[in-house]
Amino acid sequence: MKLFSMTLRQALIVNRQCCRQFSTSRIRQSENLPSIAPKSFIDTKPIWQDPELYSKNCRERNYNSQSDIPTKIAQLHEEWLQEVRALRGYSERRNAIQKQLSRAHTHGLEEEKTKLSQEARKLERDLAPLEERETWLREEKERLAAELPNLTSHETPRASQPKGIGSINEPPAHELSDSRNHVHIGKVLNLLDFQRAATTSGRGWYFLKNEAALLEQALVQYALKIAMEHGFTIVTPPSIAYSHIASACGFRPRDPSTQIYNIAHVKEDQDRDSPILSLSGTAEIPLAGMEANQILNAADLPLKVVGPSRCYRAEAGAYGQESKGLYRVHEFTKVEMFAWTVPGAEMDAFNSILSVQKTILQTLGLHCRILEMPSSDLGHSAYRKVDIEAYFPSRCQRNDGWGEVTSASICTDYQSRRLNTRVENPMGSTKKTSFPYTVNGTAVAVPRVLAAILENGWDEKDECVRIPTVLWPWMNGMQTIDKRKR
Prior knowledge:
- Residues 178-468 form the Aminoacyl-transfer RNA synthetases class-II family profile domain.
- It is an enzyme of class 6 (ligase).
- Its EC number is 6.1.1.11.
- This protein has 2 domains: 2-146; 163-485, BirA Bifunctional Protein, domain 2 (2-Layer Sandwich).
- Strands 1-10-11-12-15-9-8-4 form an 8-stranded mixed sheet. The chain has a 3-stranded mixed sheet with strand order 7-13-14, with no helix packed on it. The chain has a 3-stranded antiparallel sheet with strand order 16-17-18.
- The protein has helices spanning 2-31, 45-49, 51-60, 69-107, 110-146, 182-188, 195-200, 211-229, 243-248, 256-259, 284-289, 346-363, 414-419, 446-456; strands at residues 163-168, 192-193, 207-208, 233-234, 240-242, 277-279, 295-297, 303-312, 331-341, 368-372, 384-391, 402-410, 422-424, 433-434, 437-445, 458-459, 464-466, 480-481.
- The N and C termini lie far apart (96 Å).
- The protein is an alpha+beta fold.
């Protein structure tokens, strides 16, 4: 009897494990995920407890197609509860059978033992589909929850327009002509070449030449210097990442085929089912992935890193006049900041990132406005987002001359839950581990800042550009860009 009862229990456990392993392997196979892919730990409880809050949040963020997901999750949760109750009933019946079998064995009731054994085997057969259904319902809740954007900060305007919250430097003393176009300036000073780049790579690509190439490196070095002075540790990240890492970070464009460069398999003998690799649109993706599947110590937080990288955006050529010049391009150099913090301390990291951004733009002499971005402008992962826009004379006919040059976002635990990044022994927590909050922001996006420097520093009379003083140490002794002095 003891042998039989152990066999029954083990069979039920093995069956449960097989169902879960089959479900997990099925999901990984369908998504081409490697075995090292982070396991997501999305908390569905707040969603099924208040589905209307999450539906409203989707609508406010312009994710209308996802607004019915919270209700589906609530319905799935009710079905899941029914399955759990049914499984509990089977468990209670199994325990009762074991007791009856023990008694029958003790008293030598062979006929009753045979009858109970048959019932136990039937119980095992009936249990398998119930457990598979329970596993599917649980994982379907998590899958749908992953499609929902983050909740939205109370600081975020619920509208389509941003709210001004500050400025950097005074506006120009006199109105600057829109003839101060960096494309024209780049041609006059032999700094930019879009024509040859179009022949080489296509529209939306460019060559930086002469002082413009030096300016790129100067901006990178200066941004790294300021970030490191604010406590950021320098990291050089890869430019290629698994697509599932990008998705976990919240990069879920409405039309991925037109916005992300995926790397095709070109070798005939290469595994066609291998995970998809993509060119990173921002260093935020590999920097966030750097701590995937890791457990951080709360004493080490905030952990703040800054990294230069090349970034790739496939959608650059789809904006007509907006895409001319350096403002919207397919490939560019950017210095990105990223931080992990304990929940409740994210504002310190956020303000540190904003301080770096303000310092860089203020010392470059650019006139900027600081904006609290509206809910409709937030991506999947952002809980709150602040953009800084610089004044471009060439854009005075579009958006009154303003153009985004930096962005900073708080993502709460959206990314860490999807990347399985944990923090150990967080203060004030009774749990052994929890999920840290992540914060990210641009230190400098080189092409746009370079364009702003060219346009705002242009001296039409002398046909030269004044180089910001803070960049002189990296400009080989040059203080101006003047073709006549070469």
